[in-house]
Amino acid sequence: MNNNSKVVASFKNFLIEIGELSYFTARFFKELFNPPFELKEFLRQCYNMGNRSLLLVSVTGFIIGLVFTLQSRPTLEEFGAVSWMPSMVSISIIREIGPIITALICAGRIGSGIGAELGSMRVTEQIDAMEVSGTNPFKYLVVTRILATTMMLPILVFFGDTIAIFGSAMVENIKGNVSFLLYFNQVFDSLQFSDLIPTTFKTFFFGFAIGLVGCYKGYNCKKGTAGVGLAANSAVVYTSMLLFIIDFIAVFVTNIFYG
Predict the structure, then answer these.
(1) Cis peptide bond upstream of 36, omega within 30
(2) Percent of residues, the chain, with pLDDT higher than 90
(3) DSSP string covering 125-137, please?
(4) CB neighbours of 34 closer than 8 A, spacing ≥ 6?
């Protein structure tokens, strides 16, 4: 097979993947509004994805706040603009750094976990057994997980942003002798609704993308047990790419309406 044939085959497979993912998304919205509603499983998934990710998100956010402040402080000192540190750090973290880093962390932890879990169930024919028994596996396994990631990611992002700003305040308290009260007063004075609303809105899309791709890769897992690892790995890769695309679109649209 020559190079042109490989390019054509790759492009064809890409289009097929896009079509199958679109069909998977349409099926999700169709099943979403049809009873029965698996509330208990939805709450269990929210607990698994939210509560068990708090420690990882907290540590990551705290380190981001520390490093970002330590790296920015010398440059601001050269221009005599250290007083701008609270507003610069808070706006940067809340608008961009916090949401995208938290989403990538959750893509690695939650997305791969969903892909591996559903892939294992597909390979061991548990999903087929649910279909035979009269249970709707798509409703029970896919819809609940996508909804859980969509609902929990904004909460995790808010929590991570708060920890990151607290880490930045700790650095300023130690190095600049700035009280926590003064620091957070400057943070809240610099923030506006135009900073919070678009950011919060796009985190729902981040969560939806993580759940959708993870469920799609796991639910359609093939090639036996080797496909489980492939499903988990590809879920993280595809989700990470999709997150950056969504983030670019969100920033572009935000600049149109709030620019």
Answers:
(1) yes
(2) 36
(3) THHHHHHHTT--H
(4) 139
Q: Is 188 exposed, middle or buried (0-12, 13-18, 19+ CB in 10 A)?
A: exposed
Name the band, by pLDDT with cuts 50, 70 and 90, for residue 38: confident
Please check whether residue 130 is in contact with residue 64, taking contact to mean a CB–CB distance below 8 angstroms.
no
Q: What is the distance between the alpha carbons of residues 97 and 76, in angstroms, rounded to a whole number? A: 19
**What pLDDT, on a 0 to 100 scale, did the predictor assign at position 256?**
82
Q: Which pTM value belongs to this model?
A: 0.90
Tally Cβ neighbours within 10 Å of residue 129: 12
Which amino acid, one-letter code, is at 245?
I
CB neighbours of residue 40 within 10 Å: 9
Two structure tokens written together for 137: 């596996």
- Whole-angstrom distance, CA of residue 91 vs CA of residue 42: 33
- Degrees, nearest 5: CA angle 56-57-61: 120
- For residue 114, count other CB atoms closer than 10 A to its CB: 33
